[in-house]
Write a structure and sequence with these properties.
It is a single chain. The chain is globular, with a radius of gyration of 30 Å. By secondary structure, the protein is mainly β. 10% of the residues lie in helices and 44% in strands.
């Protein structure tokens, strides 16, 4: 009788061990995700405006505006002045309605700029900005704010169309004296990189991971 019970116990333990091995086994679910990318027209197209080279050679010593593969580059001359205004230096073609905002901004070099204003104005009414993006320098960082008829607290609502880009700089004076007459011969003093977001789905700011 004892041997029979011992045999049943051994068999029971073997069954428990087998079940335990099944419970502890890995369970893998396999899924397939396919990501297809299609190249379409950009919702924002940047170009130089009528008051920047090559359209205006007279402005060449003071400002240039050029399209890049992922946005634009502006080279500006700053000096000891209360403000410098660059009128119609850029052109923005909006091909799809959307919401423009500053995702983040960084500054390198000497602190020569205290505030930077980017005005977006319709080409049909270039003196009346629909949105002004203000970047204020404080404690080593830039803070963005928005104003104008197409603005909200966190961005600019833009309709499809063509706009001019005007820029105003308020320098932190006094700047070091310089005898250089144009940006072509000057050393880079300060660089501001602004990463814009453009939401084509709704009027909302979504932070894009860096």
């Amino acid at each position: 009788m004892v041997n029979r019970r011992r045999g049943v116990l051994i068999v029971g333990l073997a069954v428990v061990a087998a079940v335990a091995s099944i419970v502890l086994a890995d369970v893998i679910f396999v899924y397939t995700g396919t990501i297809n990318a299609y190249n379409i027209r950009s919702p924002l197209i940047f170009d130089s405006g009528p008051n920047a080279p090559p359209a205006s050679s007279a402005a060449a010593p003071y400002v240039s505006f050029s399209q890049t593969g992922t946005g634009f580059t502006v080279n500006l001359a700053i000096t000891n002045a209360s403000a410098i205004y660059y009128y119609e230096v850029g052109q923005l073609t909006v091909t799809a309605n959307g919401f423009l905002y500053v995702n983040d901004a960084t500054i390198t070099g000497s602190a020569g700029i205290g505030a930077l204003y980017i005005y977006i104005t319709p080409t049909s009414n270039p003196s009346s900005p629909v949105c002004t993006i203000t970047l204020t320098y404080s404690s080593g960082s830039l803070t963005a704010s928005y104003s104008g008829s197409s603005s909200t607290n966190n961005g600019c609502s833009l309709l499809a169309g063509t706009y001019y880009i005007n820029i105003k700089v308020v320098p932190i004076t006094p700047l070091p004296a310089s005898s250089v007459l144009s940006i072509s011969g000057a050393s880079l003093y300060e660089s501001i990189t602004v990463n814009f977001g453009y939401n084509v789905v709704n009027n909302g700011q979504v932070t894009v991971p860096s």
